[in-house]
Structure formats: C-alpha cells, structure tokens
C-alpha cells in the first residue's frame, strides 16, 4: 500500500471515546497519515454527560484551509463526522470540494442522530445543511435514524427489506454514489450493514449484542475508512469494520462503569490482523 495522507474533520470530545479520540488512533493503526481538523472542543460528548463545555472552532476553519492551500497540501481521502454548526457545514463542503487529490475519496458520516432522535445540539436547519454536504460525498455512512432525517422518511423501529430499499433510493437522490447504512436488522437478535452501490444492494448480517455502546458509529466509520484506504473494496471494508466494531462492543460488555463508550483500543491488533 502506498503511504496515504488523509484528513478527518470532527470534534474533540476530551472524555468519552468518540469522534477524533477514536478516529485518529484507528486510522493511524491502519497505517494512514491522519491529519485532523477539529470542529469543536468539548469537555465530554453530549450523550449522557450533563454540563459539558463546547468551544466552536468554526471561525478558525477558513484560516486553516487558506494556510494548507498556501502549502499546497492535498488529501487522498477526507472523512467528516460530528460538526459544530450550520455555518461550519458550509466550510466543510468547500474543504471536501477543493482540498482533495484528483483521486480523493470523500466520506461523510452525518453524525447527528440515533435511536429516532437528533443529538441535543442539532435542529432541522442543521439537517438541511447536512443534506447539502451529502452532495459532495462519494460515500455516505448514516445509521437508520440519520438516513430518515436526511431523506424525510418516517423512522421505524421494525421494518422489512422494501422499507430499507425505499430509504436508500430516496437517500441516493441527495448525491452520494455509495451508501453504507449501519444498524440494519430484520430479526430481533440480528443487525448488520447494507452497502448500496450503483443501485446494487448487498447486506452483511451479524449477531446483535443486546446492549450496544455509545460511540460505535465513529468506530465503525473510522475502521471502514481505514480498510477502504488499505485497498479493500466497499463490501470488504463493510465487513472488516463490522467485525471490529463487534469486538469493541464485546470488550466492553459487563462493565457498567464504562457506559459512555466502547473499549476499542485493545481490539486494534485484531483490526490490523484483518487488514493484513
Ligand atoms: O459519537 C457521535 C458524537 C460525537 N461527538 C459528540 C457527540 C456525539 C454523540 O452524541 O455528542 C460531541
């Protein structure tokens, strides 16, 4: 594999095992030179902690981008996650459109919602901005809740294949050529990932571990990006990221004190073995 320089744009939650504190170690373990653009700095993530601090870094972005342009820095992949503001989504769209190499892969995780609800700091204006970002993505990695908000489809707890097909068809109209839809289960004890490429749908099903963990969307998207940049095709990357995420959840099972994230660090060796 050639040495690849990539960029990931998401927040730093100082405590909580999500976003950049997950993406950076996972992508580095995948052998990628990982540059970062923090969207905001929070004392913790927003799901379960109260009274967290939030420093929005929106206004730093154009200056950072201008400096990179002056230095002629370009990225082989750009992967975006949790962003800090509506205005920032506009800046990130420009970065996606202008800071990539000719063969750049643009991966957007519209990290904004789960379990049928938007995360606490987001609203419909943010969802609309995120629809615009999807148009600049080659690959979109939403969970079902995010897919529903983006495509204005009613969220359902239970569904069948025709519902998922309809959801993907509506979502694809936003512009991304490939969609990786996570958390799709057709039976109570199963979950999995649907890969939609050029109208073709493939499904990777695996066991559902009864109690999921916070932050697994970020673990999944980071491992997917790492595998794809290691020359795996989309469906191989879908499977590797799913197997790794399941290992991280299993590592965390039974530790009630670890409610805020998944223990991904001790499974990094497994991810590296899967890529070998
Ligand atoms: O894992 C998604 C995420 C990332 N960053 C912050 C969050 C969340 C989910 O709640 O709060 C700050």
Helix/strand layout:
Blueprint: E1 5-15, H1 20-29, E2 33-44, E3 54-56, H2 61-70, E4 75-80, H3 86-98, E5 100-108, E6 113-114, E7 117-118, H4 124-134, E8 139-140, H5 144-151, H6 161-172, E9 178-181, E10 190-197, E11 200-207, H7 216-228, H8 234-252, H9 268-275
Parallel strand pairs: 1-2, 1-4, 4-5, 5-8, 8-9
Antiparallel strand pairs: 2-3, 6-7, 9-10, 10-11
Helix pairs in contact: 1-7, 3-4, 5-6, 7-8, 8-9
This protein binds 3-hydroxy-5-(hydroxymethyl)-2-methylisonicotinaldehyde.
List all distinct small molecules, including ions and cofactors, that are bound in this structure. Answer: 3-hydroxy-5-(hydroxymethyl)-2-methylisonicotinaldehyde
Main sheet: strand order: 3-2-1-4-5-8-9-10-11
How much helix is in the residues?
Answer: 25-40%
Number of helices: 9
Strand content: 15-25%
Report low-confidence residues grouped into runs of 5 or more: none
Radius of gyration from the CA trace?
17 Å
User: End-to-end distance, in Å?
Assistant: 11 Å
Overall mean pLDDT stands at 96
